[in-house]
Design a protein that fits this description.
alpha/beta, Molybdenum Cofactor Biosythetic Enzyme, Chain A, Alpha-Beta Plaits, Maf protein, 3 domains, 6-stranded mixed beta sheet, 5-stranded mixed beta sheet, 13 helices
Length: 419
């Protein structure tokens, strides 16, 4: 069953406002058995809204509008929809009284302009708004179902769940969207695709998408199931991909990378301390936004200057002089030093050039070194990370967390092998 979403509002066509309603609506529609085939943002123009609706009526069973139901002159969803459907609009006296009482309960006299919000399209069912003044509408038009919802997310969510969802659940006919999401770290998007493309192309009935973000790669598998259908092929595909990518997959249950690292630390009884130069506390921030992280996180040192690297992290002056602050040797010294000084099991360090200045031919902007030390083993990793200053800092943070995860896996596997 096909559905589409139409978001109304000229502000959504500027860089200052983001349409988050469509994300919520897509999830809810999928859960109800509807495949969202199109999302459209249209400005406050009656002609443009009407044009978008005319196209939608030819291709979708359910059409959800958000926005354009307010009291001002640029709120044109009602009139545009009524025009396309060749229906009249009139004020509903009961709704008008409800609106007046709503204002009176707050100690206000309702402005005349708000009377527009009592206008109802002929034949529409009113969807009452318990959280605002803009009522919604539910319209059936020759086997097509149209919902008009307010734009404020809080009001839209409540109205959809109470007024729209009960009406469309039976229309979905028991279809469900089965999905699996595999989160991958330590690999590029192209590396992931080259390894798994032969696998997912052999299973075309499962839709596969690969999405790269700052911290990881998300591999999403979707399969629409009819009532009573078994998602066996989806499970088999996920299993084959997991076998191909191995421990590059850090979760298939939606955990963040910092949650996975925290669980590893807690289960192994280890503690962590960090020394951060170019990331300036971002690693510590990620670690500590996980509830209970005080169980395993000792603390961090922001060591931008060489003096702090020497005085608080114990980096020898001769190492800084010989190799420079951005070097493998300093990264390892920082990891050892912060581990010793904060009395932790593991020390994690980052040093690099986030830019935009400070780079050279030998050490370009984006060059970073990550160090790790656990008392038995000290290691470093070098990477040149592209992007602007903030992108480099964010990617470096997740690069370091990814390496920490693998470091902990290696440590656990080594200990198991020695038993």
């Amino acid at each position: 069953m096909k559905a589409e979403i139409i978001a109304v509002g000229s502000e959504l066509l500027t860089p200052d406002h983001l349409d988050t309603n469509s994300l919520f609506l897509t999830e809810r529609l999928n859960d109800a058995g509807f495949e969202v085939q199109l999302k459209t943002i249209v400005g406050d123009s009656e002609d443009k809204i009407a044009g978008v609706l005319g196209d939608a009526l030819r291709r979708s069973k359910v059409i959800i509008f958000s926005g354009g139901l307010g009291p001002t002159e640029d709120d044109l969803t009602r009139t545009a929809v009524a025009g396309v459907l060749h229906r009249t609009i009139s004020i509903d006296p009961n709704l008008l009284e409800i609106l007046r009482q709503r204002f009176a309960s707050r100690g206000y006299s309702m402005p005349k302009i708000n009377e527009r919000q009592a206008e109802v399209i002929h034949g529409a069912e009113i969807l009452h708004n318990a959280l605002g003044t803009a009522p919604g509408m539910w319209i059936e038009e020759q086997g097509i179902y149209i919902a008009l919802l307010p734009g404020p997310p809080r009001e839209l969510k409540a109205m959809f769940d109470t007024g729209v969802l009960p009406r469309i659940q039976s229309l979905g006919r028991g279809r469900t969207l089965a999905k699996k999401v595999l989160h991958v770290t330590g690999m590029t998007e192209s590396e992931v695709d080259s390894r798994v493309a032969p696998i997912y192309k052999a299973c075309p009935q499962v839709q596969t998408t690969i999405l790269a973000s700052t911290g990881h790669i998300a591999l999403r598998l979707y399969r629409w199931l009819e009532l009573g259908e078994d998602p066996k092929d989806l499970d088999e595909l996920a299993s084959k991909i997991q076998e191909a990518l191995g421990d590059a997959i850090f979760t298939d249950s939606g955990e963040s990378l910092e949650q996975v690292v925290g669980r590893q630390l807690r289960e192994s009884g280890l503690t962590l301390a960090v020394a951060e130069s170019c990331t300036s506390g971002m690693i510590g921030m990620c670690i500590t936004r996980v509830p209970g992280s005080s169980d395993y996180f000792r603390g961090g040192i922001l060591c931008y200057s060489n003096e702090v690297k020497m005085n608080l992290c114990g980096v020898p002056a001769e190492v800084l002089q010989q190799h420079g602050a951005v070097s493998a040797e300093v990264a390892e010294a920082l990891a050892r030093g912060v581990r010793d000084n904060l009395n932790s099991s593991i020390g994690l360090s980052v040093t690099g050039i986030a830019g935009p200045g400070g780079g050279s031919a030998e050490k370009p902007v984006g060059l970073v070194f990550v160090g790790l030390s656990d008392g038995k083993r000290t290691a470093h990793w070098r990477r040149i990370i592209p992007g602007d200053r903030e992108t480099i800092r964010e990617r470096t943070t997740y690069f370091a967390l990814s390496l920490l995860r693998r470091f902990l896996l290696h440590r656990r596997n080594t200990e198991n092998a020695e038993k």
